[in-house]
Amino acid sequence: MVDDVLITLQNAIGISRNWAETGWSVTFGPRNTEVLSLEQAMALPKNFVFREEAVNYWRQAQLTGNDAADSGEKALKALESGNLSVAADALYFSQYIEQPFAGYSRLWHDLYETVKALVIKA
Q1: Which has the closest alpha carbon to 68: 119, 104, 18, 28?
Q2: Of 63, 66, 67, 94, which is most buried with the most CB atoms under 10 A?
Q3: What letter would DSSP give residue 71?
Q4: Which residues of the chain have pLDDT under 70?
Q5: What SS3 class is residue 13?
Q6: pTM
Q7: In the beta sheet, which residues pair with residue 26?
Q8: What is the 8-class DSSP label of residue 101?
Q9: How many CB atoms lie within 10 A of CB 99?
Q10: Tens of pLDDT along 53-72?
Q11: Per residue in 41-68, is it b (16+ CB within 10 Å) or e — as a string?
Q12: Which residues pair with residue 35 across a beta bridge?
């Protein structure tokens, strides 16, 4: 079971670090202009009124994804050394900072719940 969690955690770290590149569907402005990534936000015309909002949104997704991944790496190290409690604490932080994007990603929440269940069983 822990081996499966390790693989899932490694994948989650990569996914989280790439939130701003792989993205999800978000719309901006009264015309609901869809912007799927930081790259698309940066490519919006300079005169698009909601360009700055889109760029800021995706930059925040990038920063949040990296912070969550950093904490995920702490969890990975803790799991590799058999310290489930420290791993659960690190994943709690990852899922906590994921909250602003929880409508698009529950990546860290689900991992936290899985590791928390392992801690309870131990």
Answers
A1: 18
A2: 94
A3: H
A4: 1, 122
A5: helix
A6: 0.91
A7: 35
A8: G
A9: 11
A10: 999 999 999 999 999 999 99
A11: beebeeebebbeebbebbeebbebbbeb
A12: 26
